[in-house]
Amino acid sequence: MRRSFRFLLRPTAKQAAALAQCLEDHRQLYNAAIEHRRTAYRKAGVTVRYGDQSGELKHIRADDPDGQGRWSFSSQQATLRRLDKAFAAFFARVKAGRTPGFPRFKGRGRFGTVEWPKDGDGCRWDSQPGHPSVTFVRLQGVGHVRVHRHRPVRGRVKTISVKREGNRWYVVLSCDDVPAEPLPAAGAVAGIDLGVAALVTTSDGVHVANPRHLAATADRLAAAQRDLARKKRGSTRRLKEVARIAALCGKVGRQRVDYAHKVANALVRGYDVIVHEELRIANMTRSASGTVEAPGRNVAAKSGLNRGILDAGWGVFLTILSHKAESAGRELIAVNPAGTSRTCARCGHCVRENRVTQAEFRCQACGHAAHADVNAAINILRAGLALRRAAEAA
């Protein structure tokens, strides 16, 4: 099993400057590779691929020994592969008839990760194993950087990435052969309904609160954005405000991930089978239909709903739940959510009028009354168990 481990880096001021320059040089390499592909196709009709650009790296490094030549050859190849994947995804969207987004040049604030594809090739995890209390990672051109390792690393380190988020630096390890950690059988199954009022509602009637981390920081974030709007572009004060906003957003993201880990861990420990909705979050959070001249109906309400869904972090939660379930040997089943919130869990009658309010469910046929989210979670569980039985029968 493959897993990722992320740790905070503690670089010195000199090392932080070197890391920033490493990111900048890789960003310039990425942008130059895009320009190379565009120019070659526009002027000569030639398609440039990864192999062609990787072959040019030797000459680029020789011509710029104090710039591109300082960094790991393998990390630069990884940056070129990253661009190649972006072009492959673009052409796949074109072929599928979807709206394509052509790979874009990366601005200074939109390139935050450098990857070393192999431990020992330009990088080394735990580069000073004899140190009694501190872990270091060695990066070519940067040196031995201290790592705040808050948990043990399991498996074999495959790739090492360095990521910048605001003023913080992180190292991300992708490890192979990570042993599973199966939990003892819990003897229970559950369906879960994701929502905004409550993050998770189980078929047992348990409601897990939604802490609304973004809403709690909204006033401070709005004040920081107003201050940013008054700052002159390119000024030192503007850079400080940008860093302030990044710090606030980063804190919200960390709070959201931490809470998702705690809720997912509780579910995995309590249930052998967990059934959830297969949500299309990108479709659910699209802007209200209409144009600038005719913006449509309930635009403000739709905007608020989208903000609430994104603040709840359903996608992050489901990803974490999937990883924890796999590691613990639990079964996770995704079902189509269509009709689960309108169908009576007692008699199966499905009409829109069954859902009286956001929280109240009352069947128009049999009179069954329940909390709407609990009723939906029961329907989700039944649909998941039906899929499971069908799969076993096949």
TrEMBL record:
Q: Which InterPro entries match?
A: Cas12f1-like_TNB, RNA-guided_DNA_endo/Transpos, Transposase, Transposase_put_HTH
Record domain Probable transposase IS891/IS1136/IS1341: where: 181-287
Write down a Pfam family by its short name. Answer: Cas12f1-like_TNB
Give residue ranges for domain Cas12f1-like TNB: 314-380
Respond yes or no to whether keyword Zinc is given for this record. Answer: yes
Source domain of life: Bacteria
Transferase: present as a keyword of the record? no
Annotated Transposase putative helix-turn-helix domain residues: 1-43
Q: GO terms for molecular function, please?
A: DNA binding; metal ion binding
Give any single GO term for biological process: transposition
Going by the UniProt record, its keywords in alphabetical order are: DNA recombination, DNA-binding, Metal-binding, Transposition, Zinc
Which family does the similarity line name?
A: In the N-terminal section; belongs to the transposase 2 family. In the C-terminal section; belongs to the transposase 35 family.
Cite the NCBIfam families for this sequence: guided_TnpB (NF040570)
Query: In its UniProt entry, what is this protein called?
Result: Transposase
